[in-house]
Design brief:
This protein is α/β, with parallel strands linked by helices. The chain has helices spanning about 10-20, 50-55, 75-85, 95-105, 120-130, 135-150, 165-175, and strands at about 25, 30, 45, 60-65, 70-75, 90, 110-115, 155-160. The chain has a single domain (about 10-175), classed as P-loop containing nucleotide triphosphate hydrolases (Rossmann fold), CATH 3.40.50. The chain is globular, with a radius of gyration of 16 Å.
Length: about 180
């Protein structure tokens, strides 16, 4: 699953984690600092640039990219391959560059683009999250324009207009029975 900044990839992934425990969510490595509330090893593997570069050089990344011209993000290869070999449904929350790389090495995977209901809503979410200053917001919005234009490259587009509905559609696209999902209390 890929999509532009602030579209809700993390929120949809968290909903998948909560409501569909049979889906394994890959934990990406990143060189960026944790945001408030993020836990190392749960939300991301927070690593230094040297360690990230070592992982890339050693071929340990399924995909990786420098995002928004600043920080590196990547998916450690081994865990993904182990889960898929065991028949466990796996979800990767990645960016456009990463999706293109995975498509090269795993062309049979399903590629889902998470889209905002509108450009105005995407801007509102980015500003509302309050984690970036004006300069960083503009950089992210410029990247988002490029990413939105790439939506036709994906197998499916899921509009994140309501988290629960978007999550159910994503899980359905993964080939899982949405009706069998446990309902939280």
């Amino acid at each position: 699953m890929a999509g532009p900044t602030a579209v809700g990839k993390g929120t949809v992934s968290a909903d998948v984690r909560e409501r569909y425990p049979q889906v394994w969510l890959s934990v990406s490595a990143t060189t960026r600092d944790p945001r408030p509330g993020e836990v190392d090893g749960v939300h991301y593997l927070f690593v230094g640039r040297e360690e990230f570069d070592r992982m890339v050089a050693a071929g340990e990344m399924l995909e990786w990219a420098v995002v928004h011209g600043r920080n590196s993000y990547g998916t450690p290869r081994r865990a993904v391959e182990e889960k898929l070999a065991a028949g466990v449904p796996a979800l990767l929350e990645i960016d456009l560059q990463g999706a293109r790389q995975v498509k090269e090495s795993m062309p049979d995977a399903r590629f889902v683009f998470l889209a905002p209901p509108s450009w105005e809503e995407l801007e509102r979410r980015l500003v509302g999250r309050g984690t970036e200053g004006p300069e960083e917001r503009e950089r992210r919005l410029a990247t988002a324009r490029v990413e939105l234009a790439a939506a036709p490259e994906f197998d499916h587009v899921v509009v994140n207009d309501e988290v629960r509905r978007a999550t159910d559609e994503l899980v359905h696209v993964m080939g899982l029975d949405v009706q069998a999902a446990p309902t939280p209390l």
